[in-house]
Automatic annotation (TrEMBL), chain A:
CDD domains on file: FBP_aldolase_I_a
EC number(s) per entry: 4.1.2.13
Protein name: Fructose-bisphosphate aldolase
PROSITE patterns found in the cross-reference section: ALDOLASE_CLASS_I
Keyword Nucleotide-binding among record annotations: no
Keywords, alphabetical: Glycolysis, Lyase, Schiff base
Catalysed transformations (reactions): beta-D-fructose 1,6-bisphosphate = D-glyceraldehyde 3-phosphate + dihydroxyacetone phosphate
Protein family per UniProt: Belongs to the class I fructose-bisphosphate aldolase family.
A biological process term (GO) from this entry: glycolytic process
NCBIfam families documented for this protein: FrucBisAld_I
Organism: Anseranas semipalmata (Magpie goose)
Pathway(s) of this molecule: Carbohydrate degradation; glycolysis; D-glyceraldehyde 3-phosphate and glycerone phosphate from D-glucose: step 4/4
From TrEMBL, chain B:
InterPro entries with a match to the protein in the record: Aldolase_I_AS, Aldolase_TIM, FBA_I
Alphabetic keyword roster: Glycolysis, Lyase, Schiff base
UniProt GO molecular function: fructose-bisphosphate aldolase activity
Protein name (record): Fructose-bisphosphate aldolase
Pathway noted in the entry: Carbohydrate degradation; glycolysis; D-glyceraldehyde 3-phosphate and glycerone phosphate from D-glucose: step 4/4
Catalytic reaction list: beta-D-fructose 1,6-bisphosphate = D-glyceraldehyde 3-phosphate + dihydroxyacetone phosphate
Species whose genome carries this gene: Anseranas semipalmata
Top enzyme class: lyase
Transmembrane segments: none
Gene giving rise to this polypeptide: Aldoc
């Protein structure tokens, strides 16, 4: 406890810090395109497209071959393992396609949930075995950041002390291993929106979870300036009868973060967790307009909330490629404005943008 | 863990938050005038003055008679128990004198430390703390201070010492808030030793991380607290010398990694630094290029009073001159808290020379 055995050299620290800063540079956020095969199945099924490797490749190509100006709004893209090794129709590997736009490539590193016996259906996350070797390989293959999603849920008896402790500890181990291999770890302790709890309850639980996460990161000697946080926004549960405004969400969320996230963390990239595209943008915007202090960047790491319209425009048809790209570009631009608190809602909203993307007990 | 049982009402939270913000308003810091009887003995001994209750009263009167200039730079004064109930020559209670200047009154609540199991100090005085806080609140105090001590040696601070001190600070903080008192949380890591700057930074980060986890566990309302840490510096007998900019970078980095932005202010202890050193270091902290989301100010004892004590020497005739010395130091530190102090010119030559090291080396 008393002597330091430095985990990283100053050069390693600088490299990690630089990567993190690039991802959350002003007005930029993350495209979470790391849906697992099963999850992509859900997406494609909604638009009646078969879940084949080629279809998954085609859709990701639509996103990644967007005009280079997308790099004004997107600082990083998270990939699933399969996607990292796919190529566009001209044979260019996806990482190269992304990197040549100046966007940082990331990879989903966790291997999903595993039950914690003796709890009320709570889980921990697998993926630590062989993680160092995988990170080293991914770094060689063009990746500069990783993502690991832990999951907690609110019920009358959860999250338990064990679930909070165990998930915080696993996140810290993952983060430490990433940094040893030159990858910036995105730390994602998602408190699910399932349930009928109110905003205050979500805030209370999120504060406890984040306090545990940052204590664990400190215990594991993780270099905070070379990490990013991907938390849930603080919202009421999906089945909560009481409705809250984006301003309510913003105040509750920023207050929670001020109480738990050290200023050394360069950026906080929210997950969209089933919010519609528009909701996710409005909430992020409200946070960035809030008069509360914000010593970290507040930005996005959206999956569904960046891709819903694009998917709906594509519906599996190659002639819709441009329309799909345009839909994606539009959401990216809106979220970029939301990062600066400058998103002004125009009169019309389209159906796909407001459609709730909530799936109960969401797992990848 | 999952359901909240709110410790404070919205009104209680607002009151605590308002008090804290008043203490660390821009350009303001704290006069730590809470020396125990034993500590005052050392101070008075150095200037050849007998340690009587009357002399202690006369000396505090010197400080508290400062004119309205201190309103701009002193946000709070920490009292020792005896002093809370003393009066000026004209019968005005000291507490009244301070409050009349718009300054918040605070009280040291931790008494003598009891050792446990040997070398490291631990807690005492939680018993009856709630009743004492309630009484102090009635008697005019709006904040309190509790000092825990840790030291760096080859095998300290131990995990136990860190955890135990963090826990007792959190209990103290919780009890204070229940009684409308803003707790100043002081986990001092002593400067004794020959360890270098990096070691102090490492230990400070570990200690502060434990403190804030304990405060979270104990449901303490951070916006209604203040932190009083050591600056990050090398040990007193460390052969390597560091510039104020290096100490500042190490200090601000350590705080950025551990102190949630919700904490309104960090009021550094001076811990044996000279008056000028303490001001120069505070100024460097406030000009550090990293983002600093809390007020960074002073809670100085010796570093605000040394000149005043030497000017006073126990003589009534010297009182005005002594008060003036105190006001001067208070104004200098007020500037340092804003990053606007340019140094006295005497030692800022070599000491002020920047030996800047990029922040990722910390």
């Amino acid at each position: 406890m008393t002597h330091q055995f430095p985990a990283l050299s100053p050069e390693q620290k600088k490299a990690l810090s630089d990567i993190a800063q690039r991802i959350v540079a002003a007005g930029k956020g993350i495209l979470a395109a790391d849906e697992s095969v099963g999850t992509m199945g859900n997406r494609l099924q909604r638009i009646n497209v078969e879940n084949t490797e080629e279809n998954r490749r085609v859709f990701r190509e639509i996103l990644f071959s967007s005009d280079a100006s997308i790099n004004q709004n997107i600082g990083g893209v998270i990939l699933f393992h399969e996607t990292l090794y796919q190529k566009d129709s001209s044979g260019k590997p996806f990482p190269a396609l992304i990197k040549e736009k100046g966007i940082v490539v990331g990879i989903k590193l966790d291997k999903g949930t595993s039950p914690l016996a003796g709890t009320n259906g709570e889980t921990t996350i697998d993926g630590l075995d062989g993680l160092a070797e995988r990170c080293a390989q991914y770094k060689k293959d063009g990746v500069d950041f990783g993502k690991w999603r832990a999951v907690l849920k609110i019920t009358s008896t959860t999250p338990s002390q064990l679930a909070i402790q165990e998930n915080a500890n696993t996140l810290a181990r993952y983060a430490s291993i990433c940094q040893q291999n030159g990858l910036v770890p995105i730390v994602e302790p998602e408190v699910l929106p399932d349930g009928d709890h109110d905003l205050q309850r979500c805030q209370y639980v999120t504060e406890k979870v984040l306090a545990a996460v940052y204590k664990a990161l400190n215990d594991h000697h993780v270099y905070l300036e070379g990490t990013l946080l991907k938390p849930n926004m603080v919202t009421a549960g999906h089945a909560c009868p009481k409705k809250y405004t984006p301003q309510d969400v913003a105040v509750a969320t920023v207050t929670t973060l001020l109480r738990t996230v050290p200023a050394a963390v360069p950026g906080i990239c929210f997950l969209s967790g089933g919010q519609s595209e528009e909701e996710a943008s409005l909430n992020l915007n409200a946070m960035n307009q809030s008069p509360l202090p914000k010593p970290w960047k507040l930005t996005f790491s959206y999956g569904r909330a960046l891709q819903a319209s694009a998917l709906a425009a594509w519906v599996g048809k190659s002639e819709n490629k441009k329309a799909a790209q345009e839909a994606f570009r539009k959401r990216a631009q809106i979220n970029s404005l939301a990062c600066r608190g400058q998103y002004v809602v125009s009169g019309k909203t389209d159906a796909a943008a407001t459609q709730s993307l909530f799936t109960a007990s969401y797992t990848y | 863990m999952t359901h909240q049982h709110p410790a404070l009402t919205a009104e209680q939270k607002k009151e605590l938050s308002d008090i804290a913000l008043r203490i660390v308003a821009p350009g303001k810091g704290i006069l730590a005038a809470d020396e125990s009887v034993g500590s005052m003995a050392k101070r008075l001994n150095q200037i050849g003055v007998e340690n009587t209750e009357e002399n202690r009263r006369l000396y505090r009167q010197v400080l508290f008679s400062a004119d309205s200039r201190v309103k701009k730079c002193i946000g709070g004064v920490i009292f020792f128990h005896e002093t809370m109930y003393q009066k000026a020559d004209d019968g005005t209670p000291f507490v009244q004198m301070i409050k009349d200047k718009g300054i918040v009154v605070g009280i040291k609540v931790r008494g003598v430390s009891d050792g446990f199991g040997g070398a490291e100090s631990a807690w005492g005085c939680l018993d009856g703390l709630s009743e004492r806080c309630a009484q102090y609140k009635k008697d005019g105090a709006d904040f309190a201070k509790w000092r825990c001590v840790l030291k760096i040696s080859d095998n300290t601070p131990s995990a136990l010492a860190i955890m135990e001190n963090a826990n007792v600070l959190a209990r103290y903080a919780s009890i204070c808030q229940q009684n409308g008192i803003v707790p100043i949380v002081e986990p001092e890591i002593l400067p004794d030793g020959d360890h270098d700057l990096k070691r102090c930074q490492y230990v400070t980060e570990k200690v502060l991380a434990a403190v804030y986890k304990a405060l979270s566990d104990h449901h303490v309302y951070l916006e209604g607290t203040l932190l009083k840490p050591n600056m990050v510096t090398p040990g007193h007998s460390c052969p390597t010398k560091y510039s104020p900019a290096e100490n500042a970078m190490a200090t601000v980095t350590a705080l950025r990694r551990t102190v949630p932005p919700a904490v309104p202010g960090v009021t550094f202890l001076s811990g044996g630094q000279s008056e000028e050193e303490a001001s120069i270091n505070l100024n460097a902290i406030n000009t550090c290029p990293l983002v600093r989301p809390w007020a960074l100010t002073f809670s100085y004892g010796r570093a605000l009073q040394a000149s005043a004590l030497s000017a006073w020497r126990g003589q009534r005739d010297n009182a005005t001159a002594a008060t003036e010395e105190f006001v001067k130091r208070a104004e200098v530190n007020g500037l340092a808290a804003l990053g606007k102090y340019e140094g006295s010119g005497d030692d800022s030559g070599a000491a002020g020379q920047s030996l800047y090291v990029a922040n990722h080396a910390y």
